[in-house]
Amino acid sequence: MSTPLYQVDAFTDRPFAGNPAAVCLLDAEAGAHWMQSVAAEMNLSETAFLVPQKDGFDLRWFTPVTEVDLCGHATLASAHVLWETERLKPGTTARFHTRSGLLTAERSGDWIELDFPATPPEAIEPPEGLSELLGSVPRYVGRTRFDLLLELTDEEELHELMPDFAGLSRLPVRGFIVTTRSNDSRYDFQSRFFAPAAGVNEDPVTGSAHCALAPYWAGHLGKSKLTGYQASARGGIVKVETIGDRVKLHGQAVTTLRGELV
């Protein structure tokens, strides 16, 4: 029996940009080892696995090397596939039961709105050797539920960063959100995301990182609605809104591949 499999570029309105995710539609729960093997085979930053339930879908996310607790772009891709394949009717809310609780997605025209938990950073002392491994001295270092958030003073420096990924992978965090205010008037802030310990040296566009970036920049810029640009090679735009302890993430998605596991 075959299993439907899709590849979707998330946080973009055109193919071959944004962040690609695989979406695997299961009829019943599968073993973690099998899901990890599929994710390694796909070799994308995330592969999502969906199992239908009475009130939504169970959703799990795997990098090529490990399962993770929260992923934005693969959730966006999952919602996109459910509507595109008419497993969900237009206007129906997508409900996902995950390791991070209930997550929802709403469709508005070509845009999808995700409702995620906010993960604001708390200031900490920089870990020993961080600046050398990063290749820059951050003006701020904070710890979120999953990652370190590092603010730089210079956007050009953000774009030119070439971290020591092997060294960063030894620090006890999922990843590193590096950010700065944007000189481009179209965006409020820019960022990059490195997660070598999870098998992803640089993630093209990271929804879960924006759960930290949104409250961080909302506090600094004095407004709750912001537009971020993730300055990876593929690049991607994430519109965010902070509402209490939740963050609304707005993005678009494009299907690039449809197939089946046999």
Highlighted features:
262 residues, single chain, 18-stranded mixed sheet, alpha+beta, 19% helix
Summary, kept brief:
This protein is an alpha+beta fold. The protein has six helices and 18 strands.
Characterise this structure.
The protein has helices at 32-42, 73-84, 130-134, 155-160, 165-168, 210-221, and strands at 3-10, 19-25, 46-53, 56-62, 67-68, 94-98, 101-108, 111-117, 122-123, 140-143, 148-151, 176-181, 189-195, 200-203, 225-230, 236-243, 246-251, 253-261. The protein is an alpha+beta fold and 262 residues long. It has an 18-stranded mixed β-sheet that branches. The longest helix is centred in the N-terminal third of the chain and has 12 residues, at 73-84. The mean pLDDT is 97.
Proportion in helices: 10-25%
How big a fraction of the residues is strand? 35-45%
Main structural class: alpha+beta
Radius of gyration using CA atoms only: 18 Å
Number of distinct beta strands: 18
| Secondary-structure element order, N to C | EEHEEEHEEEEHEEHHEEEHEEEE
Largest sheet: 18 strands, mixed
Oligomer: single chain
